[in-house]
Write a structure and sequence with these properties.
The protein is mainly beta and about 90 residues long. The protein contains two helices and six strands; from the N terminus they run E-H-E-E-E-H-E-E.
């Protein structure tokens, strides 16, 4: 699987199961972010895993494995919205 070659950053809230994933970002360098979408943690407050492991753990998010680099998917009011992002 292509995802095995790349990293995924999970915010601590997601990694600890305290909050659901509400934002998935596929960075231009092909790494991923799985975040709760809140702003109450620091930049270094994350857990690093392989991206294949993240998609395995959050199997309900598997449709977003095809998200192109430079795009993000964000859950807004229960609906997933895809948009571009600069990071």
């Amino acid at each position: 699987m292509e995802h095995d070659k790349h990293s995924a950053f999970l915010c601590s809230h997601v990694a600890d199961g305290l909050r659901p994933v509400n934002l998935i970002a596929h960075e231009r360098d092909h790494d991923w972010q799985f975040l709760c979408g809140e702003y109450d943690h620091g930049d270094d407050d994350c857990v690093l895993v392989c991206s294949a492991c993240a998609f395995e753990r959050f199997s309900d998010l598997s449709p977003y494995q095809t998200l192109e680099p430079g795009f993000l998917a964000e859950c807004i009011n229960g609906e997933w919205v895809i948009s571009t992002f600069d990071h």
